[in-house]
Task: inverse folding
């Protein structure tokens, strides 16, 4: 494939087949309405324009001074890519194997609660986009629809996020439902045992269900397309996985119940318990300390996600990319290590994989893309990542993701002040 052909392909949004490798499998996936959304930053701007400010900030914001959120993004600038163009990379295989499944590229849609607030049926819209694009989708415990309804999209592979609750019976029930719905992996999130102090939501008066206050109501009134799309969905907004016959199932009641269920006493004993009752790949998300990574391997975890919850929990914790090297050293290749937080460019994905990560999870970009186009928006966003990963690897002279490694990176002063 010539350089001219390589450039031409990238002028249109693409979907990726589930089989992964090869540009000959790329097909147009989105209309010209996304033409100006040529990178993730532009998608974010479009989401800001499309959403009421309180809804946008619910996704975009983080805890307290948001230092960890900013550092998540900035950390990638501290490493530069070291190209070897004479290696030649006329075509690039972006695919990776993860937990026995082949992904078209090293990306996973991260679990993000209330995606249905950004586009009607948002979770299933994103799941379908992930399926078409050949990547994994992780369902949130806090999805608007049920985990069974997400499974009904037939997205493969599909993972299920769980928390450990004070009511261990309810935790077991969620795990058993995921097993019955044939989810291929279970993701235990460990950094949400207390709710973070998300001050943008406090400033906006954001609540569940949304009550916007005067300023928020004025903002909402200017977002007519969102209001028209959501006019039937908003009254029915709920946490689908928590609905129980004979109980109050409005979202306010369920949100209160969810907060009460969180268990600050979460310990390794619960990890051992879940490992025993879940038969498939078991992944622990929210690991930042090397000792915790070592312990996770010893306790039978099949994978780790280095994550600070997008900076939404403990402000001042290390950026995920900063924490990644020590976690990789602690794990020593015994299980896959994934990374979540601050991924905004395909080059960020390449840097993470070159550092040793098996794949990256993306959360906020998915919600921004949902807000501007539903399933088509998420496909367009994933197409941007694919083209950027492909372009970066091509310019580096790297033909396969398996050829990426520390030799592709050097320290950089780009991120230094």
Result:
């Amino acid at each position: 494939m010539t350089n001219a052909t390589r450039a031409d392909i990238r002028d249109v949004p693409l979907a990726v087949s589930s089989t992964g490798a090869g540009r000959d499998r790329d097909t147009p996936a989105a209309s010209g309405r996304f033409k100006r959304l040529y990178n993730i930053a532009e998608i974010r701007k479009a989401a800001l324009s499309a959403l009421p400010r309180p809804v946008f900030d619910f996704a975009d914001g983080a805890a307290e001074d948001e230092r960890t959120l900013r550092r998540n993004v900035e950390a990638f600038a501290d490493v530069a890519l070291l190209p070897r163009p004479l290696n030649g990379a006329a075509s690039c295989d972006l695919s990776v194997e993860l937990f026995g499944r082949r992904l078209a590229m090293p990306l996973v849609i991260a679990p993000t609660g209330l995606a249905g607030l950004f586009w009607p049926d948002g979770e299933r819209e994103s799941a379908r986009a992930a399926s078409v694009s050949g990547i994994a989708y992780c369902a949130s415990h806090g999805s608007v629809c049920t985990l069974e309804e997400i499974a009904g999209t037939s997205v493969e592979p599909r993972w299920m996020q769980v928390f450990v609750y004070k009511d261990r019976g309810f935790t077991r029930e969620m795990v058993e439902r995921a097993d019955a719905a044939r989810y291929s992996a279970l993701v235990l999130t460990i950094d949400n045992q207390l709710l973070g102090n998300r001050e943008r939501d406090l400033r906006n008066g954001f609540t569940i269900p949304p009550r916007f206050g005067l300023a928020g109501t004025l903002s909402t009134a200017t977002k007519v397309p969102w209001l028209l799309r959501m006019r039937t969905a908003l009254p029915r907004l709920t946490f689908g996985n928590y609905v129980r016959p004979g109980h109050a199932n409005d979202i306010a009641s369920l949100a209160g119940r969810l907060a009460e269920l969180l268990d600050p006493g979460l310990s390794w004993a619960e990890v051992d318990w879940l490992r025993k009752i879940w038969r498939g790949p078991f992944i622990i998300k929210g690991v930042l300390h090397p000792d915790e990574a070592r312990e996770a391997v010893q306790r039978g975890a099949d994978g780790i996600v280095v994550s600070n919850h997008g900076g939404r929990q403990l402000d001042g914790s290390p950026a995920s990319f900063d924490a990644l090297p020590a976690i990789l050293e602690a794990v020593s290749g015994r299980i896959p290590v994934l990374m979540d937080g601050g991924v905004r460019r395909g080059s960020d994905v390449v840097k993470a994989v070159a550092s040793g990560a098996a794949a990256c999870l993306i959360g906020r970009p998915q919600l921004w893309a949902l807000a501007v186009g539903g399933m088509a928006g998420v496909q367009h966003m994933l197409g941007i990542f694919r083209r950027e990963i492909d372009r970066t690897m091509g310019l580096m002279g790297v033909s396969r993701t398996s050829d990426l490694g520390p030799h592709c990176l050097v320290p950089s002063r780009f991120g230094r002040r």
Notes: The mean pLDDT is 89.
